Amino acid sequence: MDFYKILNDIMDEKNMSIPDVARSCGLPDSTIRSILSRKSKTVALEVAFKISNGLNVSLERLNGQSYSLKNESYSNKDIEIIKKYRALDKHGKTLVDNVLDLEHKRVTSEQNKTFVVDIAARGGRKQVTLSEEGYKSLMADIEKGLNSEFPDIFDKREEK
Fold first, then answer.
1. Between these two residues, 111 and 44, which has the higher pLDDT value?
2. Cα separation of 4 and 158, whole Å?
């Protein structure tokens, strides 16, 4: 993958602007802007080192070579999911993050049969406590389709 695409993906993930990246890396804004606008396929090693250190990403990642962490490797399915996630816009990433958080809480909750869920709604973020039945109902609504309107759960469930 071209360097500018990788840098753009990292900037999206970290929600950073060109000036943010430049400050973090100790580079002029014009260097970062030039990499992106000229669609640079490669950069000088010195620039790559500064970006790697400033953004806390590996040189391998900047070179498009690795999706692994120390001593942990990913399956092809994991890599596919990572690539799809990185291709999402901010809204899509928020949806995936919310569902992942919900499922993680469900799976890791101990014998406590209630779930505290953060919900982003039109009126802002709210936290609700759901019974196991309420949680299953919410997940069923989500599974029906992300393109449909969800019922207003704040009318039905107790806020925390």
1. 44
2. 47
